[in-house]
Design goal:
Number of helices: 8
Radius of gyration: 39 Å
Largest sheet: 9 strands, mixed
Distance between the termini: 115 Å
Number of strands: 9
Shape: elongated
Strand content: 15-25%
Amino acid sequence: MGNRVRLTNDTLNSYGYRVLTEGVDMEQYERNPILLYMHNRGQVIGVIKDLKRENGEITGELAFDEATELSRQCKKQWEFGSLRMVSIGFNVIETSDAPEHIVAGQRFPTVTKSQLHEVSLVDIGANNDAIRLYKDGQLITLGDGGDCPLPRLNHKPNNNPQMDIKTLALQLGLPETADEAAVNAKLAELKGSKEESDKMRAENEQLKLAQITAAVDAAVAAKKIPADKKQHFIDMGKKLGIEDLNATLDAISPAVKLSSALETEPAGDDLPKKSPWELRMEEIRAKLKK
């Protein structure tokens, strides 16, 4: 049986917490890479050699010193396979309950920074990545009845899928007797409604944009606005709405060619009163004829 073993990685252990591999400080341990039996000081059975951190995990090779009967016994059991798990002791430095550090089923904060303290050969570990933690010199067992100095995570629906079903059901407008299947069905319904709402909102925005663009294109074609101002009026329509945009465009008169403005107009008492602008244009025409 090979002596290299995974000591830890980022996965959730059975006690409900994680230790981030990249946050493990191994410098001090590498100076004294001790291998204990069952986390008991005074029961040194060897060392850990060739400690490596790669591919999101920390591994090492168990080397039994065979200096004691216990060490010789552990080596035989390791080679036979009756002892096959390790457990690692850390000093906790920093923890985090930020959503990006929490995974499904997690009950305690993630240890983001820690210091490797010791490695032990154990009979039964928490899982394949059996980890034990130390905080301020106190061993954290996290088992049933254990005294854990790490605070439990608050039950937040955003980062804790294990939120109490009764509480979640009431928040969703369901009776408190609703089971997990009913809660999941309601969540799926709400998700579908949101997706449908988002789809309708997107389609409505596209329709509004099409109406605005058509109104602006018509104004360009009617010579009310120059083509290079098209995007300006489209942006205006997005802010004001199609009704206000149409009112603005209707108030703009089409551009008139200078040649048309200079044509002689018939005069008579029966003609409607001319505007100041028309009178000014007549003055211009008179001056051009001289």
